[in-house]
Specification:
This protein is α/β, with parallel strands linked by helices. The protein is built from four helices and four strands; from the N terminus they run E-H-E-H-E-H-E-H.
Length: 145
Amino acid sequence: MKRVLFICTGNTARSQMAEALLNHLGAGRFEALSAGLEPGKVNEYAIRAMAEVGIDISKAESKGLDRFLDLDNLDFMITLCSDADYRCPMFPGTAKREHWPFEDPARFSGTAEETSAKFREVRDLIKTRIEKFISQIGENDDTRT
C-alpha cells in the first residue's frame, strides 16, 4: 500500500478533500494522510462539498505537520499550495515529492452559493488529479497483480 501525505497551509480544505478522495478512490491501494503548516478548523464548505459526493469528512480534524515529521515510510509527499511547497521541510525516506497547485477556495469571497460552487470546482479538480495519479501509479507499479 502506498502512503501519501497531502500538505497545505491550513489543512482545512484542499488537503482534507485530497486525503478523503484518495482514501475513497484508491481504497486498498493507498493510505492518504493530510497536514497543514498552520492548522485551523476544517472548513464547513469543504465538509459539504465532500458530502455531495458521498464522502463524510465531518469528523475530520485539522492536523499540524509536526505530527508527521518522524514518518520515514511515506511514498509521496504532495503539496497543494505554493506556500506549503516553499515552506515544507524534507522528510527522511520520502520517495517522491510532488506539487499540485490548487486555488484556495477558503480565500474566495462571494455569496454562500458562490462559495459552495468554488469549493465544488476545487474538489472536482482535485478529484481529477487524484484519478490521474492513481492511474499513473498503477501503470508504474511493478507489484500490482
